[in-house]
Amino acid sequence: MWTVFLTIIGTLLFTKGFLLKRLVVNENSTCHVNFTDNLGEAGCWMHRRFNRSVVIIIDALRYDFASYNATLAKTESELPFQNKLKHIHELRSSKPLNSRLLKFVADPPTTTMQRLKGLTTGSLPTFVDAGANFHSSEILEDNWIDQFLKERKKVVFMGDDTWLSLFPNRFYRQYPFPSFNVQDLDTVDNGVLEHLTPELRKGDWDVLIAHFLGVDHCGHRYGPNHPEMARKLSQMDDMIRYHTQNISRNHTQNISRTLFLKKPTRNWPAEDHQCLMC
């Protein structure tokens, strides 16, 4: 009798607390401009500080991948994933007012679709959503991609093709690459690198999104303590160094730089979600 009672109570608690139903807010924000000062250019809700923005997402980049340990550097006892992103450390040291290393811990599920949905809408995912990761549906609730389009901004995308399932027919130009072959460490990253520099030289877009996957796939295939992880992190360091320096030199374009480091899976033995903005 008590066993049946406890089973029923446990099932109810599980379904009510674990299998939460995700509520979607159907109302969308509208732009209301009511500036009382003359600072900056006109914008939506607040003054616009930049004409163009570059958003780079490095999938599965843990906080300890991005942080720099000077003690390890002196002793030369670094693991394959440690101290490979040296340019992030250099940016934080040389431009402390313009660079931040922020640590975030995300609630599960942390699969790619749920993390992208949270990143673009500000909503919280549930475990029921995890099953949709392999068949992502279009996002209809309010999100910053659609808000850019309402303001007639042109968004260019390259990288993980999950974005196209979530935001079909939204991008001015798009360069998607298949994302589910975790054995492949380089196809997506090399594809993004091939298109990133030419797109940065163009002047017909407002927002550019580049989503790299190689670090995530390397983590699934080899784990963090492997020479391939050192190679992929060094490749990302070269990418960050090259593009931040080149954007900095191009003052006339007035481009902001935002680098999001996202961990979308629970299969890593560390923190779930980190973010760096520089």
Question: Could you give a quick summary of the protein structure above?
Answer:
The protein is an alpha/beta fold. The chain has helices at 2-17, 63-66, 70-75, 86-94, 112-121, 127-130, 144-150, 162-166, 187-201, 214-221, 227-249, and strands spanning 52-59, 100-104, 155-160, 173-177, 207-212, 255-262, 273-277.
What does this structure look like?
The structure is a single chain. The protein is an alpha/beta fold and 278 residues long. It has one domain (52-277): 3-Layer(aba) Sandwich (Alkaline Phosphatase, subunit A). Helix content is 38%, strand content 15%. The protein is built from 11 helices and 7 strands. Helix 8 links the parallel strand 3 (155-160) and strand 4. The longest helix has 23 residues, at 227-249. It is globular. It starts with a helix and ends with a strand.
Strand-helix topology:
Elements: H1 2-17, E1 52-59, H2 63-66, H3 70-75, H4 86-94, E2 100-104, H5 112-121, H6 127-130, H7 144-150, E3 155-160, H8 162-166, E4 173-177, H9 187-201, E5 207-212, H10 214-221, H11 227-249, E6 255-262, E7 273-277
Parallel strand pairs: 1-5, 1-6, 3-4, 3-5
Antiparallel strand pairs: 2-7
